[in-house]
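Q: Could you fold this chain for me?
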Amino acid sequence: MKTEHILIIRFSAIGDVAMLAPVVSSLAKQYPHIRITVLSQPFAKPFFEGLASNVGFMAADIKKEYHGIHGLNKLFKRLAAKHFTAVADMHGVLRTHYLRMLFNAAKYKTAHIDKHRKGKQQLAAQENKVFIQQPTSFENYADVLTALGYPVKLDFTSLFNENYPAVDIFPTIGEKKADVKWIGIAPFAAHEGKIYPIQKMEKVIEMLEQQYPSCRIFLFGGNKEKEQFDSWCHIYKKCTRVANVLTGLKEELSLIHQLDVMISMDSANMHLASLVNTPVVSIWGATHPYAGFMGWNQSIDNAVQIDLPCRPCSIYGKKPCFRNDFACMNLIAPETIVEKVNHIINN
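A: Sure. Below is the predicted structure, expressed as structure tokens.
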């Protein structure tokens, strides 16, 4: 009898790939007899390498080695040699459509994601808005598995376990945590519609330092945020720019795992914190949790947002503010964010 072996494909942004991990973990636990291979970009390996003994990871650099039609044909040959029994397209974009076409032509069993675009468009419409919760990314991923004959009950707590421990980051960070409160802040996102005004975020940092004199505040972001982070670290002595002390995704996940709370936009760091069971105070502007992108197992009570008739105006935060006042973010008081942080820390 042929061993069941599922290929799960998801490229794209880090947050979208991170949201796949709880679903793959649930599948692996509930179907221990099947093999599972996740195909994604190289950065995603830490999300899947320790999930379960029946989960494997394949890296594919779609921007270089497997770029274009020639590259995808080369990738398909590599994949076909693995003799998968089912293929789950969790991405649903042109390149995965093409790969799925090749698998279908070769008589593989395939299924692909339904992104519920119509419902999301109605949610973000300026007129005749239909304000209802859309299926989450986790539910959409699970539906693909159900279509392949593997219904799953989503059951996940953290990436880190006895078989996949967090990295010892303390020699690099410089001190043990002890009773000091550790707070993460990820103040940036890919699009302006998802970024809380920088001056207001600085006020949040100032208030946190005053309320927690012995705290440490870790700033998460890339190289383009370096100047802003360095400025904050100079003014606020409790701040540390994470990129100055850690390298690598697993190291960052290990630090996030130690945090008491993460403050994040609707962005990748919300999902990274969710994967290691760290509570998140998430801040929502142009986007909305109803679009289905809330972090895994995060409480809506910890989401900071203003009720406005125009919200959400965008699913991904790309659209410019048609009001031209960015009220969805500007009306959020720093005190509101700090109150949410206090509630999590005190409970």
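A (continued): The longest helix spans residues 198-211.
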